[in-house]
Design a protein that fits this description.
Elements lengths: L2 H30 L6 H15 L9 H24 L16 H12 L15 H31 L9 H27 L8 E5 L5 E5 L3 H10 L20 H25 L3 H28 L2 H5 L17 H14 L14 H12 L10 H21 L4 E2 L2 E2 L2 H25 L3 H4 L6 H16 L14 H30 L16 H35 L5
Antiparallel strand pairs: 1-2, 3-4
Helix pairs in contact: 1-8, 1-11, 2-6, 3-4, 3-5, 3-17, 4-17, 5-6, 5-7, 5-13, 5-17, 6-7, 6-8, 7-8, 8-9, 8-11, 9-11, 9-12, 9-18, 11-12, 12-16, 12-18, 13-14, 13-18, 14-16, 14-17, 16-17, 16-18
């Protein structure tokens, strides 16, 4: 590792914080219904949407109504996207002449984009028409991100209100998230991406002459607009199969920096929104500190592991001076590749600028473990915040047990009912990650998809189900997931990882909103200081370690030991 590398990382993260602070305050005003800088332009559009859809802004919903509205919107989005992909060949704006997708691939992709996972069992430039990319996938990129933001705002209101039955109106929140936050930012970022060299065209491809004089057909399309919401919404689905390692999807060091900045921006800003809405900015700072401590630690481990290199490659005569460069782009360098790896998996983004399958064993363990921790570092847009709040509730419960007092968080007592919902939520991920991995590791139909045997092959399977259930979408590229088994089971993991997780979280929010908010007393455990930050970090790591360490020990840990011994399987 070098000083220059860490300086690059520090500058990018500083730029994120500098933009996240005002954005977080702006979002707090947006969801409070206050006047903002964009209100003169967007307020008439907002009112027109409500009038056309029959939405009453003044009619709020209980947690049940809010959750049912969320499920209804996403169910409709799934059905429409599935139908579009099945009949793609008969639709306009298909200059490539692509046919419709098979039922299992259409199901997997529809669930993937609706759940904000954007797992892709296909190559974008060889499978999806421009119409599908722009009006199918991109629309779900907006709506899935807006859904996450709306849910986080609803959970925040539960702690901000006292003795309330309602936690907001889902239709209003998702409209404001799209109209006031995601759409303006996406337009600005798409323009910036075009300036860095990303294509934005309806042309299907063009021909280029190779150095040997042959002709090569190169796919293009409306890349910049798709890339903008992909990163801002922590969606991660790439226009091209190589994702952000493709020279048209990430053409330069500047586009790489913009990509990292944009995917961290809204999730980081949500912590500032949280602090402002609950009336104590320190609470948001505490959650942000936990998120970024673990994110920076993950970046450091990936950076160190990759710079240490692979002794097997060195023994084969590969120059070790640049570390392990297998699967990486020289134009990005080790430092910003390491930050990208940690950020995209600490988030639920899944965009990649290097092949995670080519990382060293410890370098590959980090993104896998960060997904398994619950995608809360800082997590997906909205989903990272409400996931971290669940962990905070568990942390104050542990603190209460240690000192013999009723646990409280932000003036709300955390009792048996809330704990049952919190524990139910955190059991969803290991159930589908470890359950499906165990079955796939013994099933011939699944094992035939592996490019590698031994511990690396197990890691490929474990990563796939971790990424799906965690709604991340990145992959270890050695796994061929476009099979009926993987399309179906990964689709189930994505669906339950998103919606089965959020239902108990919303039930917990409903119970907390109904409680009377009490003031702090001399016996109240402060949840904004270093002690709580340390406790919350410990709870997150212990939960992750206890649930996943045996599986990790059989995969990347064993592979690391074999690598040091100069052996492969």
């Amino acid at each position: 590792m070098t000083f220059q590398g860490w300086l690059e990382i520090a500058l990018v993260l500083s730029a994120v914080l500098a933009a996240a602070w005002p954005l977080g305050n702006y979002m707090a005003r947006v969801f409070a219904g206050d006047q903002t800088l964009l209100s003169p332009v967007l307020a008439p559009v907002e009112r027109a949407i409500y009038a056309a859809a029959g939405i009453r802004r003044d009619r709020e919903q209980t947690w049940v109504g809010y959750t049912l509205a969320m499920l209804a919107l996403n169910a409709a989005g799934f059905l429409l996207l599935y139908a579009m992909m099945r009949v793609q060949g008969g639709l306009p704006l298909n200059p490539q002449g692509f046919s419709g997708l098979t039922p299992d691939l259409a199901y997997n992709t529809a669930v993937s984009f609706v759940s904000n996972t954007n797992w892709q069992s296909y190559g974008g430039e060889t499978t999806m028409s421009h119409l599908t990319q722009m009006t199918g996938l991109a629309v779900q990129n907006f709506l899935s991100a807006a859904t996450g933001i709306a849910l986080a705002i609803a959970v925040t209101r539960a702690f901000a209100r006292s003795g309330a039955r309602e936690i907001g109106n889902f239709w209003v929140d998702v409209t404001r998230a799209t109209l006031y936050v995601l759409l303006p930012l996406s337009i600005l970022l798409a323009i910036a991406f075009v300036a860095t060299g990303m294509p934005q065209t309806l042309a299907p491809n063009f021909e280029a002459a190779t150095l040997e004089g042959a002709k090569q057909t190169i796919a293009v399309g409306p890349v910049a607009s798709q890339e903008a919401i992909k990163q801002l919404g922590t969606n991660g689905g790439g226009f091209f199969n190589a994702n952000a390692a493709h020279p048209f999807e990430n053409p330069s060091a500047w586009s790489n920096v913009l990509s990292i900045w944009s995917m961290l921006l809204i999730s980081t800003a949500m912590t500032f929104t949280f602090g402002r809405m609950v009336g104590d900015r320190r609470q948001g700072f505490a959650l942000l500190a936990v998120m970024w401590l673990l994110l920076i630690a993950g970046t450091a481990i990936v950076y160190a592991s990759e710079m240490a290199g692979n002794p097997l490659l060195a023994a084969a005569g590969v120059d070790p001076s640049q570390g392990n460069m297998e699967g990486k782009e020289i134009r990005f360098g080790q430092a910003l590749t390491a930050l990208y790896v940690a950020a995209t998996t600490g988030l639920s983004c899944g965009a990649v600028n290097a092949m995670h399958d080519s990382l060293t064993p410890l370098g590959g363990l980090v993104p896998l473990f960060m997904i398994q921790l619950g995608e809360i570092l800082p997590g997906g847009v909205g989903s990272g915040l409400y996931g971290m709040i669940v962990m905070a509730v568990l942390a104050v419960f542990v603190a209460g047990l240690m000192v013999g007092r009723t646990p409280e968080y932000l003036g709300k007592k955390i009792e048996a009912r809330e704990m049952k919902f919190a524990v139910l939520a955190i059991l969803i991920l290991p159930l589908f990650i470890l359950g499906f991995t165990a079955v796939a590791a013994t099933l011939p139909a699944a094992l035939s998809s592996l490019a590698n045997a031994g511990p690396h092959g197990l890691t490929e399977i474990l990563y796939a189900y971790s990424s799906a259930a965690g709604n991340n979408g990145s992959a270890f590229a050695g796994l061929n997931a476009n099979t009926p088994w993987f399309n179906t089971t990964l689709g189930l993991a994505m669906m339950f990882g998103r919606f089965a997780y959020v239902v108990p979280v919303m039930a917990m929010a409903g119970a907390i909103a109904a409680k009377t908010k009490a003031g702090a007393s001399s016996g109240t455990f402060p949840t904004h200081g270093s002690l709580f930050i340390g406790l919350l970090v410990g709870v997150i790591l212990i939960l992750g370690g206890l649930q996943y360490f045996p599986a990790l020990a059989l995969g990347p840990v064993v592979e690391h030991v074999l690598m040091l011994a100069g052996k492969t399987l």
